[in-house]
Amino acid sequence: MPEVLFKVDLNKPFTEQALVGHNRWHPDIPAIVSVNPGAVFRIECKDWTDGQIGNNDNPNDVKDVDLTVVHVLSGPIHVNGAQPGDILIVDILDVGTLSEYEWGFTGIFAKENGGGFLTEHFPIAQKAIWDIQGIYTKSRHIPDVRFAGIPHPGLIGCAPSHDLLATWNKREADLVATNPNRVPPLAALPNPQNAILGSLKGAEYDRIAQEAARTVPPREHGGNCDIKNLSKGSRIYFPVYVDGAKLSMGDIHFSQGDGEISFCGAIEMAGYIDLHVDIIKGGVAKYGLTNPIFKPGPVEPRYSEYLVFEGISVDEFTGQQYYLDAHVAYRRACLNAIEYFKKFGYTGEQIYLLLGSAPVEGRISGIVDIPNACCTLAVPTAIFEKNVLPT
Q1: Which of 330, 337, 339 is closest to 372 using CA atoms?
Q2: What is the pTM of this model?
Q3: What does the pLDDT look like over 269-304, one tens digit per residue?
Q4: What is the rounded CA–CA span in Å between residue 188 and residue 169?
Q5: Contact 45, 270 (CB under 8 A)
Q6: Measuring CA to CA, which residue among 233, 226, 211, 244 is closest to residue 116?
Q7: What per-residue string of b and e applies to 295-321 under the rule 16 or more CB within 10 Å gives b?
């Protein structure tokens, strides 16, 4: 087993760990460990909520989750020799559960506390607990379903530079200013409440807590991209913005569908990630990187038969026609799938949870045929332990 460079105690909050990670992005958060290019090591991670969700049947913990705490990240890791303008190569060698935590959860967040892709249709908090058995999972809350997972870090990235951080904060503040009272909000702006910033204390902590970016969205450095195929065997190429790169990760998923549509839509878990790192000097300019790129690994569930649902860019409430709007079209595909599977004895909430957590395939199938974008959602039929095909 690779050396464990960041170990977690699942019975303690993140602020009481032997090594304290962070839940905000800022270039001045100190690294907790240094590694050399070529190193192989293991990083343990708590679940993204820092243990706020319990293995029980009551969704009140999802309803009341404190989102100022998320995401708790393990790191930063200083990679010796990495400088701004380099590319940091990160190989994901393995992702797995911790032996005392072989379960996960999927949640529908309340509209007033995070919401989700279909929050206008499902505004009330709900959750499903999944039992993880090797590569497979089942849930007592969604009967007659069993599937293989595709474990991956939902969130992994390098620290931003001061300039990049300022860019993030300005453009997201400008967006929020267009509709400041929207529920849920248009963006999660810097918030010092419950900020975890590694070993920082005193005036330096106070300064950085006011400036540091929330971890909610993906950005140029990677971050919370929630890409299900970023699994075992993948190689990621990250642009480096600060000395040492300051790599961090967390939000491990046992499985996820494309889009993670219920916001807490993956099967969230605590776990470990085994990594190998290296550097391409001057790689950002050489290869024209703006955002990370990655080469998927060879390990994923292999389903061969799917039921595919189409959606077009027409609003389901008003019938308004949108112009090539992939967001609306994918929402309609998801809603069409939910309505279909309700005919097989499921509730809409159960299928909403399932589409976020099972390895469904989302596609932009047509983006040129005015005025309708066409998005598709492919659901593997083998995940159901009963026939769900039209007959």
Answers
A1: 330
A2: 0.97
A3: 999 999 999 999 999 999 999 999 999 999 999 999
A4: 10
A5: yes
A6: 226
A7: eebebbbebeeebebebbbbeeeeeee
